Amino acid sequence: MNATKDLLSGCTTFRCSFESQWEQRAKGITSMVAVYFPKKFFAYCHWWNSVTSKKCGYIWKKVPAKLIPLLLANYSFNNHLIYFIEVSMDSNERLSYNSVKKYQRLPGCTAITLVPGGGKGMFPSQNACPYGVLKFSEVGIVEVDNIKIAWSKRGHGQYSAPLAEIVEVNAEDEDDVYISKIKIRNVSSYKPAYTALEPNTQYTVVTAGYAKYRQAL
Question: CA 176 to CA 188: how far, in whole Å?
Answer without folding.
Answer: 30
